[in-house]
Design goal:
Chain lengths: ~120, ~120
C-alpha cells in the first residue's frame, strides 16, 4: 500500500483565500484523523471520522474550518477564509479499527503558509 | 481527564550514549500509551505501544519503554544512540469520548545526537 496520501505537500496562500487540503487514507482503514501541528501548540486533533461519519469535531478551531469525508477513500479539510494564524502543518492519519489501542498511520503532511 | 507530559523539549546525547526520553501520564482509567517518532519533514510513525500486556514494551530501532503505574510514567530508552535517531519523539495517551477513542499527544522532545 502507498500509505496515507496528502496533497498538496506545500500551500502558500493569501489571507482571505479558501484553502482545501486533501487526504486519501490507507485502503480498508475505518478511521481517519485530521491534526494540526504548530510550534506553539504542538500536535492537535481537529476532527476524526469513523466509516465516513464525523465522530468528534471538538478540536476544530472555529467555523472557518470544515471537514468532509464523502467516501472511504477521500477526505478534505477546508479553511474559508484563511488567516495567517492558520499557518501550520496539517496531518491526516488513518487507523484500521480504532484509535484507543490501534496504530495511527500518518501522511507526510501539508505545510500551509497564509500570508 | 487523560493527558501526557514530556519532560524536556530538547535532549542532546553523544553517539553511543544512553537515550532517555521522559513521559508522564495522567489517566482516570487504565491507560493505553504510545511513542511516535517524527523525522524532519515527515509524518509521525509508531515506535511502540503499551496496551495492558507486558509492562516492558520493545519497539522498532532498538527502542523500548517501561510502563510504571506507581510512577505514572512511560519513559522511552535506547542503550546506544545512533546518528539516525535524531528526530522528534512524541508520547501519547488514548482517551475515550463516548464509545470512541482517540490520542492525546505530548508536546514532543527533540533528540539531537552528537558525533
Amino acid at each position: 500500500d502507498a500509505g496515507v496520501i496528502q496533497s498538496p505537500r506545500h500551500e502558500v496562500t493569501e489571507m482571505g483565500q479558501e484553502v482545501t487540503l486533501r487526504c486519501k487514507p490507507i485502503s480498508g482503514h475505518d478511521y481517519l484523523f485530521w491534526y494540526r501541528q504548530t510550534m506553539m501548540r504542538g500536535l492537535e486533533l481537529l476532527i476524526y471520522f469513523n466509516n465516513n461519519v464525523p465522530i468528534d469535531d471538538s478540536g476544530m478551531p472555529e467555523d472557518r474550518f470544515s471537514a468532509k469525508m464523502p467516501n472511504a477513500s477521500f477526505s478534505t479539510l477546508k479553511i474559508q477564509p484563511s488567516e495567517p494564524r492558520d499557518s501550520a502543518v496539517y496531518f491526516c492519519a488513518s487507523s484500521p479499527i480504532g484509535a484507543r489501542t490501534d496504530t495511527q498511520y500518518f501522511g507526510p503532511g501539508t505545510r500551509l503558509t497564509v500570508l | 481527564a487523560q493527558s501526557v507530559t514530556q519532560l524536556g523539549s530538547h535532549v542532546s546525547v553523544s553517539e553511543g550514549a544512553l537515550v532517555l526520553l521522559r513521559c508522564n501520564y495522567s489517566s482516570s482509567v487504565p491507560p493505553y500509551l504510545f511513542w511516535y517518532v517524527q523525522y524532519p519533514n515527515q509524518g509521525l510513525q509508531l515506535l511502540l505501544k503499551y496496551t495492558s500486556a507486558a509492562t516492558l514494551v520493545k519497539g522498532i530501532n532498538g527502542f523500548e519503554a517501561e510502563f510504571k503505574k506507581s510512577e505514572t510514567s512511560f519513559h522511552l530508552t535506547k542503550p546506544s544512540a545512533h546518528m539516525s535517531d535524531a528526530a522528534e519523539y512524541f508520547c501519547a495517551v488514548s482517551v475515550i469520548r463516548g464509545s470512541q477513542g482517540n490520542l492525546i499527544f505530548g508536546k514532543g522532545t527533540k533528540l539531537s545526537v552528537k558525533p
